[in-house]
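Task: sequence in, structure out. Protein: P-type Cu(+) transporter.
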Amino acid sequence: MKKSEFKIEGMHCASCAVKIEGSLKKLPGVKSANVNYGLAEASVEFDDSVTEMDLHEVVQKEGYKVDTGHSGMHQHDGTKEAARKTIIAGALAVPVFVLSMFMIELGGVGDYIEAILATVAVLWPGMTFHTTAFKQLKRFTASMDTLISIGTLTALIFSWVNLFVGGHLYFEAAAVITAFILLGRYFEAKSKGQASEAIKKLLEFGAKTAHLLLPDGSTKDVAIDQLKKGDLVLVKPGEKIPLDGVVKSGNSNVDESMLTGESLPVKKASADEVYGSTINQKGSLTIEITAGAGATVFDQIVRLVRDAQQKKAPIQKLADKISAIFVPVVILIAILTLVVWLLITGDVQSAIIAAVAVLVIACPCALGLATPTAIMVGTGRGAREGILIKSGEALERGKNITAILFDKTGTLTGGKPVVTDVISVSGITKERIIEIASGLESESEHPIATAVVNYAEEKKLAIEKISDFESVTGFGVQAKMDGKNLALGNVRFMKKLGVDVDAQVEQIAKLEAQAKTVIVLSVSGKLAGIIAVADAVKEKAGNTVAQLKKEGLKVVMITGDNQATAKAIANELGIDAFEAEVLPDQKLEIVKKYQQAGEKVAFVGDGINDAPAITQADLGIAVGTGTDIAIESGQIVLIGGGPEKVIEAIKLARDTHRIIKQNLFWAFFYNVVGIPVAAIGLLNPIIASAAMAFSSVSVVLNSLRLRK
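Result:
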């Protein structure tokens, strides 16, 4: 199955997008098609029986142009063209309006000047409406352009007839309507550009070149698409890291804020992973490339944001259904308005003006923009904050969540044991306890041993050299140092060796009640110190739980720990409900249990081991950093940071959905009120066209509020 994405020029309302999408879906061999009016973009999946040219021909037959070039350039050119047409139309419409409103005769030729200027305005900058409408007429379809074309041409032709046979002239209506609608489209294009700036800004972050290290030690500047796995590159201070890789030599701080949303730089040394497009701040780094161009974490983020902006939210389906029949219904209302006015009043002039007002005030554009612009801005804001939202559906689900289930490890806790307590028993200093213990543990690869050694390194303590090292499975380790017998392990190990620990039993029990693992150090057969190790709670986990509960959400912790350990961690975090001794394959059933109890469940996990539960949940949230991100599992992916991003993601989903509902309400309200008012003759066509232009812009501006 192949996929093609391309820009479409000439779409001016939601019905345009619906119509093109329907035509693409009818093409044999097309599996799925999505045309996004907000992005002016089509995304199509198709088999080998279809070519991209076939897709382009379908679009072109509908009367639109296909642009396969760079989307940013297309958007920039589209805004410039809209501005040019608006200026021309305005320059022509203003004198027509002045001549008409102030009844300036100019020696009897004023009406003819109006006629000429209005005709030029309608048929030059406004020609796009008529050409599109004509192409659609040949295919028995209609769009927003059809309404505008019929409305302006009717006013223009009616005025030309009256110019010679006598009667009121509406040249100013034809010219000013054209100018107002073009002005609205200019503002719409500019606003849509701001709404979709997330993709552009992400693309700007990407590195363009790299210093490739050659075998002789020299460097050569190359484009990043020329790099391949295994290549060595030099990254100097202040430069962007070109692609994902591993540090081979050098030390530095790297700004990963564009990836994670975290402002603090991250220390990098030999063997550390680095990510493309992040910024090297201080020292020079030699990096081995591990992912080629297009396969980096940064590339995944760009694809994810783009896909999210293309996908339609379920709430958009209603708008699409209405947009599909909107234009034909409006044309029927306009015809009905004309007929009723003629039957009741017999006034041709009033009948035509009322019908024209109906045509130009009707606006499916606002309906079409209501959802995609909000999703564009919402997903863009999320990307800047390290919150990747995969679809509009995730936004809708986020606002309905009633319970959040956290897989403890990696979400509420760090997932790696760290030293939490060091207690001196026999007068030996805490620092000395760690120096001896790290010497003993340096020979072991056990996670607890790693925690002790890391703690010594963080504190810049010397790691003692030992001899005669021996590991005793299930108990601990022992060795010699300067002729002294050393032992480090659990209480059972100490008792086995005859070390008296009775005086510290209460202290040890207290630490274990806090869900900590206790190891004891003895020197020459005497108790020297106690070290407690735990999977430490993340810094902002407790505050996150409190905020979620404040939002009215039930918070549940899921863990494989025993009941006592789980209760201790839950109490520390302020979590009232927890599921302990849970095996990986039982998480799915726990999610189902809460769903069957009537809860709308969000499951927060690492996105790999928790994939079934994340998929089953009403909203799956995958937490990870770098290459650990399981893009495929979660509907929302959180990059970097701590559990506080969960509350940020929920709030963003709720804010975005609220904006979508506001947009749809005003779009429906505008048309439901505006069309009847125009039909009964209470709305001048010029005011109607201005209102129509404003309706689309107001929807986009409302969506832009999400950027804050």
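Confidence is low (pLDDT under 50) at residues 70-74, 626-630.
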